[in-house]
User: Fold this.
Amino acid sequence: MAEYQRHEHDVLVIGAGGAGLRAAIESAHSGASVGLICKSLLGKAHTVMAEGGIAAALANVDDRDNWEVHFADTMRGGQYLNNWRMAEIHAKEAPDRVKELEALGAVFDRTADGRILQRNFGGHKYPRLAHVGDRTGLEIIRTLQDHAVHQPIDVHMECTIVSLLKDGNRISGALGYDRERGRFKLFEAKAVVLATGGIGRAFSVTSNSWEYTGDGQALAYNAGASLQDMEFVQFHPTGMVWPPSVRGILVTEGVRGEGGILVNKEGRRFMFDDIPENYRGQTADNEEEGWRYTQGDKNARRPPELLTRDHVARAIMKEVREGRGSPHGGVFLDISWISSKLSNAEEHIKKKLPSMYHQFKQLADIDITKEPMEVGPTTHYVMGGIRVDGDTQMSSVPGLFAAGEVGAGLHGANRLGGNSLSDLLVFGMRAGKYAAEFAARQSSAKVDTQQADAIVRVALEPFDRAGGGEGPYQVEHDLQTMMQELVGIVRREGEIRRALDALKTLKERARKVSVTGNREYNPGWHTALDLQNLLTVSEIVARAALERKESRGGHFRDDFPEKDPSYGKFNIVIRRGANGEMQVTREPIPEMREDLKKIVEENK
Amino acid sequence: MASNQSFAQNIVESGQRAAARSNTSAGTETRAGTFRIWRGMGASGQLEDYSTSVSEGMVVLDAIHQIQAEGATDLAVRWNCKAGKCGSCSAEINGMPRLLCMTRLSELDLEKPVTVEPMRAFPPVKDLVTDVSSNFRAKKRIRKFTPRPPDAPDGTWRMAQSDADRVQEFRKCIECFLCQDVCHVLRDHQLHEQFVGPRLLVHAAQLEMHPLDILDRTDELKESHGIGYCNITKCCTKVCPEHITITDNAIIPLKERVVDNHYDPIAKLVRLMRGSKSTDTGQGEAR
Ligand SMILES: Cc1cc2nc3c(=O)[nH]c(=O)nc-3n(C[C@H](O)[C@H](O)[C@H](O)COP(=O)(O)OP(=O)(O)OC[C@H]3O[C@@H](n4cnc5c(N)ncnc54)[C@H](O)[C@@H]3O)c2cc1C
Ligand code: SF4
Ligand code: SF4
Ligand code: FES
Assistant:
């Protein structure tokens, strides 16, 4: 029926951020024929926006660092819900993946003796983040992209995948459309790697772009794969709050890493007021010590601004709620104060945080070398995602792999800053490798065009209703506002239930949206299709949030404000039941290996 | 501590200033603005007027999104980061090549319609979206980074920050292609296949001046990348949102390398021009 452009690859990588690019490079290196797909132009994925740095225990700045400390930090940050095998592999392999980037041309900031410089970040015991000013993501994506274009990889830019295709139980390819012309494309593949990133557009205040509509999570879910930890959404403590049009745009944690401090409108450094028990030993108890830490004093403990993100975000919310916030509903983040400590503070700030300087100057008329910024929490990252095997990154669907933000396991209940970029490289590489191996063992899978035709028919329905129903933007907007209010930073059972009800209505509305114009580069149509995924992941987040009746990491329940040890023993897993219903189960976390337990103990 | 005292004072004052800003022109206070936007498929199209309300702090991209949501649902525009980091949202605003997400409405005269057009140097696709694929093809033709053997037994290199600085300037490029858009060689003469353009020369400079790279790309810069077409008008440098000094720091040194290896009349002319005071090619920058 429908006409397709057909493409055949051994490995199809969906997503061209850090994870997808690294996977594609590895698959190609293993000799597989590779297709690489992205919704935007090449090099514009979220990875390009990452600012602060990439975590790896290179020990260039502090030689006490090693993989064991990084492992322990990651587990503590994730409140022990992490897939410990992934945390182990990540901590061990991240240094090699970073060094490898340098071999591909990346130019990181340097130490005095010419090695890769590392900076402090929340939850990391030692300065661990390799960085390039505050544009580390750009450096990483460009390095990978420039390398990938010289490899035998077919890049399909501005192409959106709307469904995975299966041949019986196993994956056989994917169906998408090219955004420019609106033509459908049929990809046949022996293995598929999902590297589509996150879900931040499900909320109204977010640091994420239009791309983050949870496509990969929804594609995998619809194909029968399991998702886990979806209740854990990271609200980054410092997003811009003013002017309204930039609300949510990220202010890197690097500002605090370089000595920036959080204060309320009374000028009080409120982060000293509440330091969690399990971090007390590692946290400075006076301002002087905190400052020395940011300046590299190895005997100093970190300032409380560098506690984990979930904690800092809630502390900010508390100040705002109790009336001590800044004029526009945030608090102050000040780096300009370091002029009382450094004679060249202005130059120093511009050198260390150039894009923050620019961002505030241009978008908010604020010179951060002279004035404090106003900041507040913003939806940033999803710890949960597709449940995978820790070594190979394969999901529960044979031939379907996942890496990067779309995958789950490494971060548990809360991700440490800098651990995402390293995640992309470590597990992107592994997914690429094992997908190529998987593909080599398979005969070609069969793509069922009837299956594809049915999907195409549904995808084109919004045009059939042209002019007859409401547009997709209003539904999307209402969904975001609803999720922000009812399933945001602070959650309660009643509100989550209201969200689930609201989702029913929104689904009805989404089923009837209409779009005008033709199929060529039509954002209205694209939004109508992405909306389906947003609805699916929003429901998954809400159901998981309802199930976890405790507070831990990124998930805070006002009606269960304490951590409950019995909830520390399992992950919440969601998959699609035989009749299309959402099944929520509790999957026990396997007992940690003895040697790893010892490492955790030693680093307590 | 005494400094703490004044510090708290500073915060309080800054809060008062911020509050004052919001009182005079709160985000709630709006006015109407007219946007004259290019609507078209392929080469054919026309400017159409849209009116929408604008409030403090908005950038042109916000206005475009608002117009989309208010009815022009199929208005095509590229964007991602909304913070000048991804280089997706390039367009021509009142005839100036700019990023839509970094152009604040407060900088523009809203008494008149704000014209928003696609980058004119590239084949039009739809509305504000153009076909920029030539830039991606051009990069494939530039030979890739090739490092010298590692300096240390663990496979790593040593590099001074001062050496890193030079290429880090070029590596800031966000591939917005605004420089390609203003370059007359591409825009007026459409020599996309003969001349790689300023963005790709920045890329080549980054490779050539990379402290670890060992290839010499001067031959192909002259023969196939068309560096000779550039006559140092510096239009590219003026529009770069990353403030990369494209001409002086990237192109001229590359041209000099080429001259050192070949005879290149324009580059020679450039050197003469740089030495003479009688040209108007931006003496300030040329040093
Ligand atoms: C502002 C900001 C700053 C950050 N700073 C840091 C930091 O300093 N350190 C750190 O470690 N992490 C940081 N993060 C987090 C980190 O950048 C992201 O988690 C990471 O880049 C995600 O990479 P990825 O490869 O998984 O996905 P992405 O880079 O987002 O790539 C996703 C890709 O999938 C494609 N895609 C999605 N859906 C589809 C579909 N349906 N069809 C086809 N293609 C599709 C997209 O087009 C894109 O190419 C930051 C995030 C943000 C937003
Ligand atoms: S200086 Fe050269 S590259 Fe730049 S715009 Fe002029 S001719 Fe083009
Ligand atoms: S050099 Fe500047 S103007 Fe040209 S593409 Fe890069 S960032 Fe844009
Ligand atoms: S949207 Fe990224 S630069 Fe404008």
Residues 2-24 of chain B form the longest helix (23 residues).
